[in-house]
Write a structure and sequence with these properties.
The complex is a heterodimer of chains A (about 350) and B (about 500).
Chain A: H1 2-25, H2 38-42, E1 58-64, H3 70-88, E2 92-98, H4 105-117, E3 122-125, H5 130-142, E4 147-151, E5 164-166, H6 170-184, E6 189-195, H7 201-215, E7 220-227, H8 232-245, E8 249-254, H9 258-270, E9 275-279, H10 283-291, E10 294-300, H11 302-317, E11 329-331, E12 334-338, H12 339-350
Helix pairs in contact in A: 3-11, 4-5, 6-7, 8-9, 10-12
Chain B: H1 8-84, H2 90-103, E1 110-113, E2 117-119, E3 123-126, E4 143-148, E5 154-166, E6 169-179, H3 180-188, E7 195-200, H4 213-216, H5 221-225, H6 231-242, E8 247-253, E9 256-265, E10 270-276, H7 278-341, H8 351-367, E11 374-380, H9 383-390, H10 392-409, E12 413-417, E13 422-427, H11 429-433, H12 435-452, E14 457-463, H13 471-491, H14 497-503
Antiparallel strand pairs in B: 1-2, 1-6, 2-3, 4-5, 5-6, 7-10, 8-9, 9-10, 11-13, 11-14, 12-13
Helix pairs in contact in B: 1-7, 9-10
The chains are: A alpha/beta (about 350), B alpha+beta (about 500).
Chain lengths: ~350, ~500
């Protein structure tokens, strides 16, 4: 009963926040600050299937993503939610959701090659390397496979993949986070940029957004740009090195989920006053945000990405193409949250028990 | 010591005060007893509540333990069955997992191969980062862990190491994940909404998201109780959670005192906390107190009625007894008086009565209030002779015959036996007026009796004279006349002691 009430309350909050956002964007609201409610609206856990009636009673999908990592585990939960809801309607969906322990376009190509041999209705890819993988996807589509992209990284703009579900504004996310950092630093000082995997479109786009933003301000400069290959330990190591090489570093832009955790550890360890902005909802990162070590985090709605991926995959499996049923790119939101949002976000994502 | 006379009023007042004191004592005793009853009831309710809480916590903890053990057993069985199946494809494996899941009512039942690929009924996924128990390369023993899923849902994960080959792959683990909400529903099944309970992690976080009463709610139990108990108790409370100990904690929030009982759930790192709903205790106490009070009121009322009735009866009986004793005393007094003034042989008044009458007459004579009074002195003739010759019984009979004769003849006079053979008759009013006729008739009768050898009585009489100062003056004159008459009767043949002795 209590959970049901919470769900209703959460939906109500989402509705209210959506209205507030709509009003703010239409000029009715003068308050452009970040409300604590952002944490509630950053991730939508309440989903229901749309009105589309699947043509078959059974579907089998194959999804591959960049790296075994908690971020994609969150996407998986949204996918499982959709699978259960289809099952309630009598439609059985089975799928594989596979990734390597370390990001690698070679591994991804290999997996796609194996997937071609399986009896899958749709093959979904979180593109590990835009340049390398887009070509492979084109070949698969030409060969008659139904291919879609999902989660963090789309293929290249001219790729023949059928649709994309996920973050479509990685560049803007990088720019927005960096803008917040620049304001905090009063538009002066050295900034270190940490990126995830080489060639990963989402990471590269965010890094580009960060670089372009910093370039707008003459009193700011980029101290270093490093890739942690989605490893927290590597991020920590790189951040320590940056701080030691540039003791006057004023801030960090962290473009993936592991970057802010490793950087916060380094800043805490070395007693630095550097301001950190970063991506995603890692539990440790949220705790650093709550404690004031991290200034702000861009939280993507992974759950919705997963849920919508399954819905779009079903439609693609039935032979549908982007149009009225689904767009070419299903955009999922990113919300920048600050210290005051950390505790409620920890509550929403992980429960207070872990705080 | 001076003896004071106890009056009826004193007895009544004493009885009234005594009754009031008894009633006050009874009411006070009943009131005290009712207070004691309420106090005892409260203590009993507290004891029962504590026992109830402890029992419920223990039962809930055992329910979870049983659930865990059952799931471990089911997993073992499921793996054995799957291992015995000749599974050659992923579809067959999914079917087998689904079948086992349904047959054994397992939640999220999955197998894990050596590459940390997780196989469930509908999905196959790389699970290295998703399941903490896969962090270690090998799984050596059973693992019980709490999973805090993205989206704040919590699950209990139970994993066992396995060693089977399916589809040519080595499988290393098998696990189930049980939604905490399912555990809560299981525990709430026999709860009857009379208690609060919640599951907590060692750091006080509420895992079950069940409300532990309105005061603690669903928040962190340490945060909720901090400041509401002494620092020492709070530290001890936290240590108990950290060390998986059981115990109780009483705290006050907003003036309301509540007690919780906590019991560790073995192997989970959880503490199960129960708190009986305050309204239930209050209702129970109120119900018992009201019953007790109603009983006491009835007791007091009954005692008052009984005491009043009993007091009334005692009063009535005391009064009646006193009156009866008074009447008896009067009767006794009368009897004693009568006995003192009556001659036991003849029934006429005795010498003592004569002396009293003499004293009264003397007084009246002195006052001059007596007009007509005659005194007759009577003496039985031959009494000694009869005593000597016929015995005292015959003598007594002679006295009685003489008395009867005197009383018959002087029916309007007062007859006194003043000596062994002497009688005095006082005549007033009608007796005085008819004295001459009566005396003449008496004398005639006596004279007739001489010849019949029956009782002979010599009489002499005199009347009150103006110069008389006392009754004795009349007596002396009458006595002389009596002697004269005795002589006369002697002459007629009657026996007389005096004259017989003179002759002898």
């Amino acid at each position: 009963m209590s959970q049901k009430k919470n769900n209703i309350f959460r939906k109500f909050l989402i509705l209210v926040i959506s209205l507030v956002v709509a009003l703010a964007s239409s000029g009715y609201s003068a308050d452009t600050g970040t409300a604590a409610e952002d944490s509630e609206s950053a991730v939508d856990f309440e989903h229901s299937l749309d009105d589309y009636v699947p043509a078959k009673k059974k579907y089998n999908f194959y999804f591959t993503y960049k790296i075994v990592h908690p971020w994609w585990d969150a996407v998986a939960l949204g996918m499982e939610d959709a699978q259960k809801k289809y099952l309630e309607k009598g439609i059985v969906i089975t799928y594989e959701y596979m990734a390597p322990d370390a990001a690698s376009y070679e591994d991804q190509i290999k997996r796609l090659s194996e997937a071609e041999k399986g009896d899958y209705d749709v093959i979904g890819v979180d593109v590990a390397d835009e340049e390398k993988i887009s070509a492979v996807l084109d070949e698969m589509v030409d060969a008659g496979y139904k291919v879609m992209t999902f989660s963090s990284s789309d293929a290249s703009a001219d790729c023949k993949r059928i649709a994309y579900v996920g973050n479509t504004h990685n560049y803007q996310d990088g720019a927005d986070l960096t803008q917040a950092l620049c304001e905090k630093l009063e538009y002066k000082g050295k900034v270190g940029i940490l990126v995830g995997s080489y060639g990963a479109p989402c990471h590269e786009d965010r890094a580009k957004g960060a670089k372009d933003t910093i370039a707008k301000y003459p009193n700011m400069e980029i101290a270093a740009v490093e890739y942690d290959m989605d490893s927290i330990d590597k991020a920590h190591e790189l951040a320590v090195k940056m701080l030691k090489d540039n003791p006057d570093i004023a801030g960090f832009v962290c473009c993936n989920m592991s970057n802010p955790v490793g950087t916060a550890r380094a800043v805490t360890e070395l007693g630095s006053k550097a301001v950190i902005v970063g991506m995603d909802h890692d539990q440790e990162a949220l705790r650093y945000l709550r404690d004031g070590v991290i200034y702000c985090l861009g939280v993507q709605d992974c759950y919705s990405i997963g849920f919508d991926t399954i819905q779009v995959a079903v439609k693609i499996a039935d032979g549908n193409l982007p149009g009225d049923l689904f767009p070419d790119k299903t955009d999922e939101s990113t919300t920048i949250i600050y210290q005051e949002d950390a505790a409620p976000m920890l509550e929403v994502l992980y429960g207070d028990v872990s705080q | 010591m001076k003896n004071r006379k106890i009056t009826e009023k004193a007895v009544t007042i004493t009885a009234a005060i005594g009754s009031v004191l008894i009633m006050v004592a009874v009411i006070a005793n009943t009131y005290w007893a009712s207070r004691q009853a309420i106090s005892s009831t409260n203590q009993a309710v507290s004891a029962v509540s504590a026992f109830y809480l402890e029992s419920m916590a223990d039962r809930h903890a055992r329910t979870i333990t049983n659930l865990i053990n059952n799931n471990f057993d089911y997993m073992e069985k499921a793996v054995r069955v799957i291992d015995e199946d000749d599974i050659e494809s992923q579809d067959e494996l999914r079917d087998a997992i689904g079948r086992m899941k349904t047959l054994l009512s397992l939640n999220r039942f999955a197998l894990v191969d050596e590459d940390n690929i997780v196989y469930t009924q509908y999905t196959t996924y790389t699970g290295g980062s998703r399941h903490a128990f896969l962090a270690d390369e090998t799984l050596d023993d059973r693992v019980i862990s709490t999973v805090f899923r993205y989206g704040s849902s919590k699950e209990l994960c139970l994993a066992i190491p396995i060693d089977v080959k399916i589809m040519g792959k080595q499988f290393k683990a098998c696990f189930v994940q049980i939604d905490i909400n399912d555990i809560v529903n299981l525990l709430a099944f026999d709860d009857e909404e009379s208690t609060h309970f919640a599951l907590y992690s060692a750091n006080g976080g509420n895992i079950s998201q069940t409300e532990l009463g309105p005061l603690i709610g669903t928040g962190n139990i340490f945060d909720a109780t901090e400041g509401n108990v002494s620092g020492q108790k709070w530290d001890s409370f936290r240590n108990d959670f950290a060390n998986e100990e059981r115990g109780t904690l009483t705290f006050t929030i907003n003036g309301i005192v509540d007690t919780i009982y906590y019991e560790p759930v073995p192997d989970t790192g959880w503490e199960l906390v129960v708190m009986i709903r305050e309204s239930v205790i209050q209702d129970q106490i109120q119900e018992i107190s009201e019953k007790s009070l109603a009983t006491n009121r009835r007791q007091i009322f009954s005692l008052l009625v009984i005491a009043s009735v009993f007091s009334g009866i005692i009063f009535y009986m005391l009064r009646r007894s006193a009156r009866e004793r008074l009447d008896e005393e009067k009767e006794n007094s009368k009897a004693f008086k009568s006995m003192a003034n009556t001659d036991s042989m003849t029934g006429v008044r005795n010498k003592h009565a004569y002396m009293e009458a003499e004293a009264q007459y003397n007084s009246r004579i002195r006052e001059g209030s007596v007009d007509n009074l005659a005194l007759v002195v009577c003496d039985i003739n031959g009494l000694k002779y009869v005593n000597d010759t016929k015995g005292h019984a015959a003598g007594d009979q002679l006295i009685k015959d003489a008395s009867a004769l005197i009383c018959d003849m002087f029916s309007h006079g007062s007859v006194f036996r003043t000596g062994g053979d002497e009688f005095v008759v006082l005549l007033q009013d009608k007796g005085y007026d008819t004295r001459e006729e009566v005396i003449n008739a008496f004398n005639r009768k006596v004279e007739e009796n001489i010849s019949k050898n029956e009782v002979v009585v010599s009489i002499g009489y005199s009347t009150l004279q103006p110069e008389d100062e006392q009754l004795h003056d009349i007596f002396e004159r009458a006595d002389h006349l009596m002697y004269d008459r005795k002589k006369e009767l002697k002459s007629m043949g009657a026996r007389t002691r005096e004259f017989d002795e003179e002759q002898s």
